[in-house]
């Protein structure tokens, strides 16, 4: 059996390891700048691919990522599996019941944000195909359709994450936007699948009408009978196989076989994985644990490898065409924001919310990149248009969050872990009384922020005297509101001997969080206090916290024990 | 860039989906027969490979698993990634501190069970190489070394799971055996890595002394400095990246790069993944959640694909050589059981425990198969020896559990979910009083088991009258011990209106478990009761159970909410 040589294995592992490491580091960096992780992951491929590494050290680039031979096949295999699993997860996030529940407004926005950009992009591509970067020899209709779908499709995962980051996901606005995005996603993929089948992608050569019919029938079957069958079979899988392995395997097997079926029908494999994901995610029987295991492995291992591998495909500098980038981006931004805005207004939303809905829907993200990639590989578009599409997809995702914040005048909701800093952490408090420990804790913060220590300590003590802040379980949260502050400050400290903060359970306070908040933001103190109370609800947490000796250990504990912010 | 064609993608997805589905179904079947899952997974490959499918429908076999071209490379890529991640997980299970803590006896057994079979197999292979199936042209020393390590290595994961299944893992015997298996695994892999380097596997051609030196140095470095570095860095990863993605990616990236480094040194990549796993698993900072995510994805997705792919390699019927199979198996069983037995006796253990230790260590399992595969691919052994090694590896794993049970006269510890059956499940109890409901519940069981209903109900009621069995949270567990019973019986029922079982929290019982146990087994009732109490400790569990309408839903809930039995 033909197999990888030791040299192939070495190159594959090294390439994969470096690709994943770079993608994850840059992805984390993007997240910390409040940008989608996919932006950093793509940059990793641009760094390690022909654009940067290939220009500076072409031989290293060719050693790691040869363009022919077993290693090219190996990398493509992993990227293919990765994108199929990524689309399965994207499908799981499609909550069909949300779509029905939100009703008219969501559908109006979804349809408008799909059809208007589609029509605009199609027209542009039809009249100026050369300017837009049509692949030589590709049929004009197919090219125009591809560009149209590439610009009009929305990135549901990025939209959902953007809304979650701002705590808007469960708001009225959030639910309408999500149902619009689900509609856009679902309808967009069906249209995309039909376009794919028209270019003879896939193994079968069938009449176009038959393929369209098959696509729609297959979609309908999976989302009705298939969905019901999965819902019925899942309890059997749970009851008669080892938990949690049976359910996990069941989901992955379905995605692989659904993908194979779609590839056979003549539409792309990833559409099958997406539909299977949608059917799976819709079942109330699918356990959270299985969702998480798949989601984590895909989001943090497979997806970064896939998006980094995109960056390897072309040279993003030599194929950069400023005019085309601006044209494509302007087309996408104007059409998508405009269409969603008018859709929202039509559906009865107020102007400000409608604009926020528009900026929510603007994100083309990963989905647009995938469309572009398939078109590039099929020779339908030129490299310069691929580069422009990728930049547009990323650019629209980058502006989405900030523009919603500006539109809604939104202030970031800060979490405990975001406010902790090594500068305001005292791993061994010396003081023995509440009054002394408050002074000990505010001192470094006051020095750093230029506040008056006596005054600040007095304000905290004043609050403390009216109602003691020992909340039990060994925790105390002394606090005060200060006019002088611009943003909240938390000083964390550990007292080995414990200090009597008059807690209801009579336990001495060993972990202290001293919270100073601006008077202008009265709500923030409550959210931080409730987060602390939740974290230390169970006894073992106190013991673990007492065992930490450095700020890093302390912060690591707060982060890894807090409820998963992504869900 | 060279990539997979649509046809390649179709074949790859179909092949992967079918391979995984078959492997998992047969793996579950093996588990339900109390055999290692790897046995069923391997059978899946034998079914879909040249042995069965290839004989019956050669064209289907060739379509799914072509031996040359892009699909052969794609499958090998996935199998390679799979085995590397599998060895990483195997490494994580190696708990170095257990090794040191158990001290002398464990090391004695470990060393004896490695060296004595090694010497015996080496001698045999040296004197009758042709009978044993030496590959034509392979150097006799190398052949003998390979066979020796293939027979003497032990399957730590299977040994650990066998002991866990019998609740022996935390016993004195269990800890000694596990530390012996850890030693055997670690030393065995180091020797194996050195043998691999001797055959010029890997990319570098170095003098043999240098490679041995490098292997030992590298092992030592990873297990000392590397281990410490990982332990130090993990809290930073947790504190400054998104949880849980950062830690997950960190672990996988390290495994990939460690594997690449080992491949470059000239020993096999999987050794690097194994060492990285050992170093990672040793850190107390590695969170349970990350262990589980990796373990589940690898155990239930990657490992089944890998072991099934082994079955695709050769025709197990046409290369079956009965004499060789018996010879290899006898050699392994006698040498391994004997050496571990004498090692245990030498270490001061009693005869019965020593024999149990011998049967624990006999399992060659997955590790022997991996050794055989590498030797086959390098042309060192013939197909008939590979087949014999695989059968021996499986056979030793199959006898291990039953022989320990016989030696220790052990009775299987039954869990709640194993005792529930649809025959003894009543989804809507009619009775209103405790006495009536007991009668309603015992009736079907008594009819089926040929017991006297009046007598049985009276015995349960008698017990109930002395102390009521409503344990609170809506649960009651009436029970009795019966002379007539051979094994425990549980009748589960749901009462929609609730029945007053005099619970301490005054809640009516809605979920009832009526437990009948043999008088000969007094302990079992307590373990079942405590499992039920644990399951229903939290309020939501009762609500979920009340929503179930079928036995399957009820069983699915009991299984998926119970603490993971594998850990």
Average pLDDT of chain A, to the nearest integer?
89
Share of helical residues of chain A: 55-70%
| Individual helix count of chain A | 25
The number of strands of chain A is 6
Structural class of chain A: mainly alpha
The level-1 CATH class of the largest domain in chain A = Mainly Alpha
Describe it for me?
Two copies of one chain form a homodimer. By secondary structure, the first copy, chain A, is mainly alpha-helical. Chain A folds into two domains: 80-408, Na+/H+ antiporter like fold; 416-561, Mannitol-specific EII, Chain A, CATH 3.40.930.10. Chain A has 25 helices and six strands. In chain A, a hairpin with a 2-residue loop joins β2 (470-472) and β3. In chain A, α11 packs across α12 and α12 (208-240) packs across α14. Chain A is globular. The model of chain A has no long low-confidence stretch (mean pLDDT 89). Chains A and B meet through α1, α5, α12, α13 and α15 of A and α1, α5, α12, α13 and α15 of B.
Note the main attributes of this structure.
homodimer; 567 residues; mainly alpha; Na+/H+ antiporter like fold; Mannitol-specific EII, Chain A; six-stranded mixed β-sheet; 25 helices; 6 strands; 6% strand
């Amino acid at each position: 059996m033909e197999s990888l040589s030791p040299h192939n294995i070495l190159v594959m592992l090294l390439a994969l390891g470096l690709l994943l490491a770079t993608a994850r580091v840059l992805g984390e960096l993007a997240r910390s700048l409040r940008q989608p992780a996919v932006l950093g992951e793509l940059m990793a491929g641009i760094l390690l691919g022909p654009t940067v590494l290939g220009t500076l050290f072409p031989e290293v680039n060719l050693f790691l990522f040869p363009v022919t031979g077993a290693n090219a096949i190996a990398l493509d295999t992993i990227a293919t599996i990765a994108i199929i699993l990524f689309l399965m997860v994207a499908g799981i996030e499609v909550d069909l019941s949300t779509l029905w529940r939100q009703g008219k407004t969501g559908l109006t926005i979804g349809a408008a944000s799909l059809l208007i950009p589609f029509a605009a992009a199609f027209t542009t591509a039809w009249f100026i195909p050369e300017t837009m970067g049509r692949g030589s020899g590709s049929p004009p209709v197919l090219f125009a359709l591809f560009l149209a779908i590439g610009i009009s499709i929305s990135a549901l995962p990025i939209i959902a994450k953007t809304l979650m980051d701002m705590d808007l996901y469960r708001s009225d606005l959030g639910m309408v936007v999500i149902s619009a995005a689900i509609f856009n996603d679902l309808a967009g993929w069906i249209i995309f699948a039909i376009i794919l089948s028209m270019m003879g992608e896939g193994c079968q050569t069938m009449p176009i009408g038959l393929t369209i019919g098959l696509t729609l029938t297959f979609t309908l079957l999976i989302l009705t009978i298939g969905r019901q069958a999965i819902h019925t079979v899942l309890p059997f899988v749970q009851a008669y196989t080892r938990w949690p392995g049976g359910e996990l395997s069941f989901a992955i097997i379905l995605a692989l076989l659904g993908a194979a079926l779609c590839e056979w029908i003549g539409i792309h494999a990833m559409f099958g994985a997406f539909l299977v994901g949608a059917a799976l995610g819709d079942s109330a029987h699918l356990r959270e644990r299985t969702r998480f295991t798949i989601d984590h492995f895909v989001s943090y291992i497979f997806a970064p490898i896939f998006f980094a591998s995109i960056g390897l495909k072309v040279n993003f500098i030599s194929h950069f065409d400023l005019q085309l980038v601006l044209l494509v981006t302007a087309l996408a931004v104007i059409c998508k924001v405009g269409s969603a805005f008018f859709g929202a207004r039509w559906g009865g939303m107020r102007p400000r919310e409608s604009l926020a809905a528009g900026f929510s829907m603007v994100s083309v993200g990963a989905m647009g990149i995938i469309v572009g990639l398939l078109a590039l590989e099929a020779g339908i578009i030129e490299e310069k248009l691929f580069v422009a599409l990728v930049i547009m997809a990323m650019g629209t995702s980058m502006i989405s969050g900030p523009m919603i914040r500006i539109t809604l005048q939104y202030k970031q909701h800060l979490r405990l872990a975001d406010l902790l800093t090594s500068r305001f952490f005292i791993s061994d408090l010396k003081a023995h009384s509440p009054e002394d420990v408050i002074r000990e804790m505010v001192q470094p913060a006051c020095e750093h922020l230029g506040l008056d220590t006596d005054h600040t300590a007095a304000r905290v003590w004043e609050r403390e005297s009216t109602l003691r802040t020992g909340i039990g379980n060994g925790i105390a949260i002394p606090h005060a509101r200060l006019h002088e502050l611009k943003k909240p400050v938390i000083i964390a400290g550990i007292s080995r001997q414990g200090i009597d903060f008059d807690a209801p359970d009579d336990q001495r306070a060993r972990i202290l969080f001293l919270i100073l908040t601006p008077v202008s933001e009265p709500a923030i103190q409550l959210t931080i206090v409730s987060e602390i109370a939740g974290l230390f609800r169970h006894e073992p947490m106190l013991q673990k916290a007492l065992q930490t000796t450095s700020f890093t250990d302390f912060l690591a504990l707060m982060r890894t024990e807090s409820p998963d912010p992504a869900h």
